[in-house]
Amino acid sequence: MNSLDLAKAIAAHASKAKAIDLKILDLRKISSFADFFVIASATSDRQMRAICDKAVQELKKEGVRPLSLEGYEVGQWILADFADVILHVFTEESRAHYDLEGFWSRAPRVSLQAPKKAVRRAKPPAKKASKRRKMKKA
Questions:
Q1: At how many degrees (to 10) do helices 45-60 and 3-16 cross?
Q2: C-beta of residue 79 within 8 angstroms of C-beta of residue 90
């Protein structure tokens, strides 16, 4: 799994655990220590742990494990380091205080939406000449 796919998978799992205001920052051109940050908020420390647990448990099924977890037991910020992708889960107050999005404002944001498939529309059937036109020609 490449780092972009991993970031999107982490965000999807966090979303299923009711993460608030999910963002993926693309750091590939401006950082040497990580390719992506996945940033999420929670309304409580219990929800922060649930978001982190969901991402870790689901990725474990795919053979992906975090290198480290920081702030899990105490604090207002959990960091799960998946090497090229780092998951940050904050309380809303801590997220505003540390303002990672502001600090990394040059980092492009990655869309969380699945790309929409192009819909091919059939050509409308050719119009048949009306009886009136046929009569005028005659």
A1: 130
A2: no
Q: Which domain holds residue 60?
A: 3-114
* Structure confidence at residue 134 (pLDDT): 53
Q: What is the pLDDT of residues 29-85, one digit of tens each?
A: 999 999 999 999 999 999 999 999 999 999 999 999 999 999 998 879 999 999 999
98 part of a folded domain: yes
